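Same chain as my last thread, 274 residues:
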Amino acid sequence: MWIPLTSLGAGLILALLLALGRRHETLSLFQPSRGDVRVPDDYNPKPRDLFIDTGNGVIHGWFFTVNQDAPTLLYIHGNADTIVQRLPAIKGYIGLGLNVFIYDPHGYGNSEGTPGKSNFVSDAFAAYRYLTERMSIPPGKIILLGQSLGGVPALRMANSESVAGLILEGTFTNIRQLARDRYPLLPVWLLASTDFDNEREIRRLKIPLLIINGTADLTIAPYHSQRLFDIAPKPCEYVRIEGAGHTTMFETAPDVYYGAIVRFVQTAVARHGR
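reply #2:
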């Protein structure tokens, strides 16, 4: 039925555009993978399978134990693939003497449900509660690592829960800026949401922060990390991996990448214990 372009008609058109924009945003942000989630037979140490009831479905993760008393890296991965694709990076963290917990959010890997903004954030908090309440890991020995989209829940958790430190890897400033990057000639950003705003969250941060990005990142432009560093409370550390892409920092310059992480973890845990 034809609707006259009155205030009502204009409102309906705007509502439709916003709905389409948000739908496109969700599909762009979350690109889940299913498939086989297993650790290779020769992987050492073998992880412990954890299944966490979030209250909105069960999510699956792996806990790699190096030493019972070692710091634990809570790894929150980005918008694509599963925990399997993070195994090469995890091997390096284990080599640093760190325990590692990584999980798949709703809709990824062996985790139940469907992905979405609310679940993506609440899953991270459920993982943290499992570590602190069920496994009795002291908050002062937990380091958050938010990779790409994982920086969103990592920042929120860092501002509301007790942890020793936060690492942001290839993270963006906010969704609207991502939309500007992707569609520079179209005002698509006007339809983007404002709820995943890392600039807003990072200004409130009160714990040690390490920001890492690759200078050849074609997924999230390096200036996002620079911007977050510029507005973050100091002191914080910023490490650029020359020539690295969005997920290849640990491969491009392992000594620089892992060296920065181990120094940061040691300093942050020691600081929290004072």
